[in-house]
Specification:
The chain is globular. Helices cover 42% and strands 13% of the residues. The strands form two sheets. A six-stranded parallel sheet has the order 5-4-1-6-7-8, sandwiched between helices. It has helices at residues 31-44, 60-70, 78-98, 107-111, 126-135, 157-169, 185-194, 208-211, 225-236; strands at 15-19, 26-27, 102-103, 116-121, 145-146, 178-182, 197-201, 217-219. The chain has two domains: 15-28 and 101-236, HAD superfamily/HAD-like (Rossmann fold, 3-Layer(aba) Sandwich), CATH 3.40.50.1000; 31-98.
Length: 239
Amino acid sequence: MTTDMTTPAPDGTGVVLLFDIDGTLLDARGAGRRALERAVEEWSGRSLGSFRVHLGGRTDLDIFRELVGELGIPYPAPPDRRRVLRRYLELLELELQRTPPFVHPGVAALIARPGFHHGLVTGNVRPGAELKLEAAGLGGQFSFGAYGSDHEDRNLLVPLALHRLWRGFGIRIPPERTVVIGDTDKDIECARAAGCHVLLVGTGFGDYAKLAPEADAALPDLGDVDDVVQILARLTARE
């Protein structure tokens, strides 16, 4: 993803918004689940039956590890993991064509607002993230980020995304000027691990009522963009 950075805030520093994808930016309507489960079944020659892994906020590699464990198969070596990943991406593209994702309210308007650097922190492997964003009409909107293909542990991804913003664009922004926007406990955890703020949305996989008190701010969705921007300003205001 190579697009220009958004316009910096008047103070020259700006604020980083790190978006989760599934449940936050868009709803892929189960495309990722279907593609990954089928890829694992084809590779293993075994059926997952009625087993359904919990996806919310987890990295693709973590989910793959659980699916393999459910089948009673040792976690495969890198060549087999790459083979399954390639097949997953082929199937994901087909699934997204069959059932196109939809973008959640307010997303397009928020990422068009100046004063923010818009990035990604997602459990999706990078090619899968790009496929989903393209299918939803959001391709090219995020010029930096960190992905499930970078590390299986999502809590390591926020610092990596900020590092890439600095290395790629010469923009160094501290955690206290960074907001993770997501829908699950994993989004809250990765934000806390990096010392960032977190805005929870109720459009995805998480238990919104239960998780809202744990976030710095919570909204049912991003539909009222003026309200969202005010909340972001409050969270990242300098003392």
